[in-house]
Automatic annotation (TrEMBL), chain A:
It holds the Pfam family TctA. This is Tricarboxylate transporter family protein. The keyword rRNA processing does not apply. The keyword DNA-binding does not apply. Keywords: Membrane, Transmembrane, Transmembrane helix.
TrEMBL record, chain B:
It comes from Hwanghaeella grinnelliae. The keyword DNA damage does not apply. Residues 7-144 form the DUF1468 domain. This is DUF1468 domain-containing protein. It comes from the Bacteria. The keyword Cell division does not apply. Keywords: Membrane, Transmembrane, Transmembrane helix. InterPro entries: DUF1468 (IPR009936). Pfam families: TctB (PF07331). The chain crosses the membrane at residues 7-28, 40-61, 82-115, 121-143.
Amino acid sequence: MSDLLIGFQDVLHPATLIWVAVGVTLGYVLGALPGLGKATGVAVCIPLTFYLGPVAALGMLIGIAKGSAAGSAVSAILLNTPGEPSSAPTALDGYPLARQGKAQKALKMGLFASVIGDFVSTLVLICLAAPLARYALLIGPVEICTILLFSLTFIGGLSGNSMTKGLIAGAMGVFFATIGLESETFVSRMTFGLLELEDGIALVPMAIGMLAVAEMAVQAGNVKVLDSEGARITDGASRNDRVVLASEWRRCLPVIARGTLIGSVVGILPGLGASVGSFLSYGATRKASKTPEKYGTGMIEGVAAAESADNAVVPSSLIPLFALGIPGSVIAAILIAAFILHGLTPGPLMFQQQPRLVADVYAAMLCASVILLIVGYTGQRLFAQVIKAPLRLIIPGVLLLCTVGAYMETSSVFSIYVMLFFTVIGFFARKLDFSFVTFLIGFVIGPNLELSFRQSLQLLDHNAMNLSKHPIAVVFILLTVAIVWWIGRGKGPAAGERHASAGQTPEKHVPTNS
Amino acid sequence: MRRANVISGVILVIFGLVMLAVVIPMQINPGPDGMMSPRLVPGMMMGVVIALSLLLVINNIRAKATADDSVAPISRGEIRALVTIGVIFGAAILLYLLVSPLAAGAVIVIGALLALGERRPLVLIAMPTGLLTAIWFLFYKVLGTGIV
């Protein structure tokens, strides 16, 4: 606690605080732009911090990560184009709310849920990181493999009407993740002689193509209909349409609490990431609701559920990084470089070797949460102006930004080819109701899944009976089977496909399918 | 959607079979002795895709017909938009390789504006100019990072 107070002393210096604020603002803007998410934002800004002190530099980068996690909700709500995959569930109810004239209400709830989730999760990080270092060692490759498999199955089952299609998408995602050099044998896999594919397919151009450009293609195909609908997206005349009412707070607070808990737990588990957290939270909230059929039509609880979990993942994903030195997410992996650059080597020893810098980072994270609330709240009216622009003016700008975002990943035109390839896949995936989110999650966790699977086979000596020595893994295998049975019973292949045309899937609640 | 599910299921089965029978054996070497084959996980994933796609096809063939079955999930307008975006990006890549990144960026914005029906000269000039200037300012001046 005394270390944390010293940390606040360091961070509450105007010169430091202003860089945290710059980071949050920059992150919020980058997050709001489709395709330019927190990973891209932090990666781009690392060179900027070369000339800053360690506290200001780390505070700024953490600010970018936090700001962009919250900012991605803006485009999800106003444009139905998530700034990042993890904000996809926010769009499911946020965009319908915007179309009902309640954009400001949705944006405000998204911001409040983001800040609460983020702040509480930061407290979880502060409380758990050091003590967890001992217990986290119990999670080995066998457990990680089963946890990842469980997550993929769960997401595949929840993200569409058809579990079969969800699982196909997940398997395809893992398959595409195997392209490039294999990590153990260094054998090239399916590179077709292209050097650019040796490192595998870059996530950013792929995600931009599948999510943003594919969505733009679909929206361009319906531009007249959408513009006429867009013209109807106006702020409601009633004050009640612009503010979060006390009754909505009462309904949303338990949802935010659940979302924060889910996001924090998902963040702690390495490899899952914000998309898993936000979808789990959204799915759990929908399942727990007395009116699940209303989700996707403009339920403010949907926005609260997705955003609280999405933002709670960011701080808690640093727990495995701080406790074990293992990045729990893409953003944590990128932050490792920045931490090392500024003299803080993530891992159990940092608590003994650099207690003050750790406290500074914690203090900067808490301050960034408060600054996020101020920046988000004051800048919201500015961002809400986007809804007044017709689509024919928005689409070209988004396409240009997507191109820049994809290109920056490798500074090569090959990234644009990748983006366009996955635009086509994303287009058909969303039109044919194959979950592109499950595909992306499969792609992201694919390398971890494969590595832990290989290590598991070696550890278990190719004998399934040896699993009995790994009770956590057994629990997750049983959970996976239970999830398949549970989801499959209600919305499995038969039911899902039988009713595919009868009900809209979450991903189909976009204007593109109207 | 039933018909689309059957067609997409069949395409995925063919894709999986081609990958399993041709691409994976040709594009992935067996790997060193004593180590797990690098073909294992890609092969497993394609096995899963084939099995689930067959399930998708069978379930949809057996499912009862509904009124929505006659509605195509993809409209002509959407296909046209996808092709148009492809053409715009094709032109932009050509300009990037032959002229300059700036021309490529301009053609993406102007091409998309024209394709979406925008004809006002002021907008056609101001939008690419404004966007490209804003990007230049953000990356080169604010972030201090060159992107090209």
